[in-house]
Amino acid sequence: MTKVLVIENEAENRNIFLECLEAEGFDVISAENGLVGVEKAQEHAPDLILCDIVMPELDGYGVLTSLRQNRA
Description:
The protein contains three helices and three strands, in the order βαβαβα. With 72 residues, it is an alpha/beta fold. It has one domain (3-69): 3-Layer(aba) Sandwich (Rossmann fold), CATH 3.40.50. A three-stranded parallel β-sheet has the order 2-1-3, sandwiched between helices. Helix 2 packs parallel to helix 3. The protein is flat, with a radius of gyration of 11 Å. The protein starts with a strand and ends with a helix.
C-alpha cells in the first residue's frame, strides 16, 4: 500500500486531506507541523509527502532541507 505523509498545520485542511486520501486507499500519516513531519518522515519512510509551505516551527522549505540532509 502506498504510504503518504501529510504535513499541514491547519487541522481542518489536514483532516480533509486525510479523508480524501484514505477514501482512495492510501495509508496516510499526518503531522501538525514541520518538526513533527520530519520525525515522522524519518520514522515511516513514506512514498509521498504532501507539505504545506507556511507553518510555524519549521516551514515547508525547512522540511525539505532537513529531509535532503538525511537521504535515508
